[in-house]
Amino acid sequence: MVNLTPTMAPTQAYLDTLLLYYEEEIEGEAYFQALADVAKKPDHRNKLHLLAKVERHAASATLPLVLKYRLRPRSDAELLSSGQVQARMTNEPWESLLADMALTYPGYIEDFLRLETMAPPEDLPRLRLLTAHETVAIAFLDLEISGAPDSAAPLEAYLKEDIIWE
Ligand SMILES: [Fe+2]
């Protein structure tokens, strides 16, 4: 049987954005990892580790698309060092770090949703996993800022979501 469903050719803007966002998740993992390394409180360290893992999970969800389109990300070494530099420039107490993230992250959701609107439909399941990592990060921030004891639960639930490999 021939599949007659027309497939939408991805635009260059879509491919460029996909690659950029993939790279940003790898940088994000290095960023949170570096912040975790210097965190004084074990509770903060654990939560930063979880955020790093969520970034990696989002990157892994997106990687099959990067490979499918033969995109060429910057090297892991370069992305790692860029994330670490960003972490060194972040010298904030826990509360203001959270407040900054809570201010910035809703904008990222809009960016990810915009990427979804540019995507061929077959890419959407993976892109939704990418978008979801920001949703759970915001859910974590809301809970953590309000002092909820189980603030990490949305992050932990996200990490249990299976990644679809080809
Ligand atoms: Fe991220």
Any overview of this molecule?
- The two termini are 21 Å apart.
- The chain has 6 helices and no strands.
- The protein has 166 residues and is an all-alpha fold.
- The chain has a single domain (12-159), classed as Ferritin (Up-down Bundle), CATH 1.20.1260.
- α1 (12-38) packs antiparallel against α2.
- The model has no long low-confidence stretch (mean pLDDT 93).
- The structure holds fe (ii) ion.
- The site of fe (ii) ion has 5 residues, from α1 and α2.
User: Do you know the CATH topology?
Assistant: Ferritin
Task: Count the E strands.
Answer: 0
Contiguous helical run count = 6
CATH class: Mainly Alpha
Going by CATH, the architecture would be Up-down Bundle
**Principal-axis shape:** globular
* Beta-strand content bin: under 5%
What is bound: which ligands? fe (ii) ion
Low-confidence stretches: none
Please tell me how large the radius of gyration is. Answer: 17 Å
Order of helices and strands: HHHHHH
Largest sheet: none
**Tally of domains:** 1
Question: Main traits of this protein?
Answer:
Ferritin; globular; 166 residues; binds fe (ii) ion; mainly alpha
List the SSEs and their pairings.
Elements: H1 12-38, H2 42-68, H3 76-88, H4 94-118, H5 124-145, H6 153-159
Helix pairs in contact: 1-2, 1-3, 2-5, 2-6, 4-5, 5-6
